[in-house]
Amino acid sequence: MSTSTVASPQSPASAPTQGTQIRLRGVTKDYGLAAPAVDDVTLTIEPGEFMTLLGPSGSGKTTTLNLIAGFETLTAGTIAFNGADVGILPPHKRNLGMLFQNYALFPHMTVAQNIAYPLRERRMPRAEIERKVADVLELVQLQGRDGHYPRQLSGGQQQRVALARAIVFHPSALLLDEPLGALDRNLRAALQLEIRRIHREVGSTFVFVTHDQEEAMNLSDRIALFNTGRIEQLGTPEQLYHAPETLFTARFLGDSNVFAIDGPGTGSTLAWEGAVWRVDPRTVSPHPGVAQRCAVVVRPEDLHLAPSTADVPPDANSLPARVRDIEYMGSYRTVVLAYGSAGTPGRVRVEAFDAGFAIDDQVVAWWRPERQRVVAA
Ligand code: ADP
Ligand code: MG
User: Fold this and answer.
1) What is the span of the domain harbouring residue 145?
2) Rounded mean pLDDT of 361-371?
3) How many angstroms separate the CA atoms of 10 and 139, rounded?
4) Structural domain contains residue 12
5) Is the distance from CB of 41 to CB of 74 less than 8 angstroms?
6) What atom in ligand 1 is closest to the CA of residue 55?
7) CB 294 within 8 A of CB 377
């Protein structure tokens, strides 16, 4: 990425603004279906924070964003910007920038006219509009494209124009709903970097919706993981990845080896198919559900393979397994395993040049007790 084109810190388009706090309390949207689309969501998005609403399709992310924007009315609960209730404010009075998957640019307007649109709506003087458009074009690195029409731009460039239009008027916050969903993998990665840089430079609150866990982990200060209209877990990407509280969270973020236990996870040991594992109390989820039913979760990078039990460190937890497949991933290999009598599937990450195992080998998988998580299942 070029650094020479970054807008000067004192230019209005890039000056860090005081971000807006967005506070949701008991927010509920019920369309009269079997379950509410959004069900009692309480969440405080801090000023200047990059918050991602992550979750599977249909989990209530877009509805939550639309409630913040005012496109939908609340069934119950309150939403406040910087402490002021916005419940009855129409969308245009909430002063929010919006970015969607389809760029929604005006096809008959040039890049500059598209970006100027929200400023003209606000009856800003022409000279000021020209200055702000020039600044924001620099911020999204589209200098020299001001006279182009959308059809003359690539998909990635069009999305940069839409982003410029969404932030040029200093919105209270920027709401982004799967904005990179239509772009190919490389372009997505490039635009993720751009969005992060722009967030740092403008300093305003970003609320970003995605179903893509990698995108969420790359971008966010914090992630609110949605499951059927509720927040399953809220935390930093590191917290959600390393300290999932439930099986849903462990499965949604990253790969996991999952051992379902038919009982509570509150003792000092756990048994699975005859193996007995030590439990480090620091790895037990505080989720109340863990007292009824739990699962032991181990990440592929925390597992090791040994030829036999004799090769396993004495304080490790372990389990016999059969090698089902070995996948070459470039920088590493994934050994696909079948555990125990039922052949429970699992994955271990090993060095790319580790050729010590072959398909159908009997091996022992082991891990440190402090690297497992006991989650509610
Ligand atoms: P997501 O963005 O996480 O994919 P949505 O917020 O779009 O999920 O949808 C959540 C649930 O609400 C889904 O079951 C969806 O079918 C339902 N839903 C969304 N919008 C409407 C609507 N306007 N009328 C009825 N049901 C809706
Ligand atoms: Mg959606």
Assistant:
1) 22-241
2) 96
3) 13
4) no
5) no
6) 3
7) yes
| Adjacent-strand bridge partners of 225 | 54, 233
Name the nearest CA neighbour of 154 among 162, 14, 189: 162
Asked which of 210, 241, 272 is the last residue of a domain, the reply is 241
Strand order in the sheet with 38-45: 38-45, 22-29, 76-81, 84-85
- My answer on whether 197 and 343 are in the same domain is no
CA of 63 from ligand 1 middle (Å) equals 6
Q: Answer yes or no: do 65 and 178 share one domain.
A: yes
Does residue 7 sit within a domain?
no
Helix (H) or strand (E) holding 189: helix 185-202
pLDDT band at 357 (very low <50, low <70, confident <90, very high): confident
**Residues 172-197 pLDDT 10s:** 999 999 999 888 888 899 899 999 99
Residue 13 placed within a domain = no
Same domain? For 223 and 268 the reply is no
Does residue 263's CB lie within 6 angstroms of at least one atom of ligand 1? Answer: no
pTM: 0.91
Neighbour tally for 185: CB within 10 Å: 8
Residue with CA closest to ligand 1 atom 2:
62
Q: Does residue 150 share a domain with residue 78?
A: yes
Q: Is 34 close to ligand 1, i.e. is its CB under 6 Å away?
A: no
> Ligand 2 centroid vs 59 CA: distance in angstroms?
8
CA distances from 49 to 11, 53, 155, 174, 206 (A): 21, 13, 27, 11, 6
Query: pLDDT by residue (tens digit) across 57-110?
Result: 999 999 999 999 999 999 999 999 999 999 889 999 999 999 998 878 999 999
DSSP symbol at 180: T
The total number of structural domains in the chain stands at: 2
Let me know whether 221 and 277 are in one domain. no
